[in-house]
Amino acid sequence: MSKSLLSLAITAAVLSGCSLIPDYQQPQAPVAAQYPQGPAYSPAEAANQAAAEQGWRQFFHDPALQQLIQSALVNNRDLRVAALNIDAYAAQYQIQRADLFPAISATGSGSRQRTPARMSQTGEAAISSQYSATLGVSAYELDLFGRVRSLSEQALQTYFSSEEARRSTQISLVASVANAYLTWQADKELLKLTQDTLAAYEESYRLTSRSNEVGVASALDLSQARTSVENARVQLARYTRQVAQDENSLTLLLGTSIPANLPSAQPLSADLLSELPAGLPSELLQRRPDILAAEHNLKAANASIGAARAAFFPSISLTANAGTLSPDMGGLFKGGSGTWSFAPQINIPIFNAGSLRASLDYSKIQKDINVAQYEKSIQTAFQEVSDGLAARQTYNQQLQAQRDFVNANQDYYRLAERRYRIGVDSNLTFLDAQRSLFSAQQALITDRLAQLTSEVNLYKALGGGWNEQGSQKAEVSKEAPPLKLF
Fold it and tell me: Rounded to 10 degrees, what is the CA torsion of 215, 216, 219, 221?
């Protein structure tokens, strides 16, 4: 009995050597070999270390931000769902792969039946018994043309794609937490600036009010001073709201409350991020998880063509069992009680109204769709990196100009205040200097936030944010999950 089943398995393994999956050819990258060059871009630099290999703890210098990212990686629900999706696709792969092997089952049964006298041939009531024990294989398909293995390969590539999707989700999460944290800090700095400016406006209004009472300042001067105060109060309410909403957004990303023991935040003007080499466009094909996921989906679509092709050919399925049969329990395993059955079945497609042809055409169309999606993911990655490189150079120039503008406004404010106090200039000039300085300081904080955000997005675009430490190289497994037999 066991020898026959072993022979069956060996025969199936020998016959299952054919595959109709087309040879996979990686599409050419539809982008230039170099990133754009021009006035908006900094000169190309050789990358000693790929951005994707630079750990997020190495890239982000702020200890508070590092703690928040670590908390998000543990508690964020989107990342948790992505990890569970990997397990789900691994289970689907196990289900599909199991069809490559015979399903062997053991069954035992027993029955007793009483036949009444009038229904018995002997004219007397009779009791009959039957007991059996069998070991068999049911409806096992011999994979002669690789249909089952093609479906298994499709499920495997889908599993690999889910791993890359999880990696992409983590990279996006790291970038989202960093951007949310930087926005929170920028709004807090804007809130503090507004509070200080409001205090200065209120003091100026108080002095102008006293001058108006003694006839030195006009009602127009007093009204203009009041408009500055009210405008600052509007800004104060807005930034107070934005800080609260920033905290809520950050809490959602973390998946838990913001830790109470968070280290003191570094100012936006500090060295918050490390230098980031851009490398070459070809690195995107090896580092960007969304590109790798698209390629695995393409390979899965390629494998489905093999399954659709195999459906045109005959399929053979086997059902076999061997065991013992006896009218009583005692004789179940005695000599002469053996029984067996062997029932092969062949299915030859003759007429199906074009269903098989349509299935093959559909698989080919799906592959073409996946090729287009793969190429689009490369083009999107190239555009995101190019935008980041352009932002790096121009923001450096813009920030320096904005700092000079703030310094010029501070000089203007000091001179206007001195001339107003000694009565050389009117209150209008002094108020204009106050407003110009406040606006310039707000713009400097906003521009610094935009620069930092663009650097974070460039880090994400280059595939960074997967490793925790720069010295540790994390790789996504490209091995099939182990087969679980039980």
Answer: -170
- Widest CA span in the chain: 137
Rounded CA-CA distance 288/241 in Å is 36
In this predicted model, what pLDDT tens digit does every residue of 224-245 receive, in sequence order?
888 889 999 999 999 999 999 9
Look at the block and give the residue holding tokens 């590539």: 157
Taking only the tens place, the pLDDT of each residue in 109-145 is 888 887 787 777 777 777 778 878 888 888 888 888 8
pLDDT at 192: 96
Instruction: Collect the ranges in the chain with pLDDT lower than 70.
Output: 1-17, 43-49, 278-279, 469-478, 482-486
Residue 383 DSSP SS3: helix
Give per-residue burial for 28-67: e unless 16+ CB within 10 Å, then b: ebebeeebeeeeebeeeeebeebbbbbbbbbbbebebbbe
Rounded CA-CA distance 73/173 in Å is: 8
Q: For residues 338 and 331, give the distance between their C-alpha atoms in angstroms, rounded to a whole number.
A: 11
Q: Is the dihedral of CA 204, 209, 212, 214 positive or negative?
A: negative
Q: Cα torsion for 410, 415, 420, 426, to the nearest 10°?
A: -80
Task: Give residues with Cβ within 8 angstroms of 101, minimum separation 6.
Answer: 9
CA 389 to chain CA mean position, Å: 23
Helical H runs in 16-114? 56-59, 63-75, 77-97
Record the pTM.
0.84
Residues 6+ apart with CB under 8 A from 332: 131, 132, 133, 324, 325, 326
Buried b (16+ CB within 10 A) or exposed e, 285-304: bebbbbbbbbbbbbbbbbbb
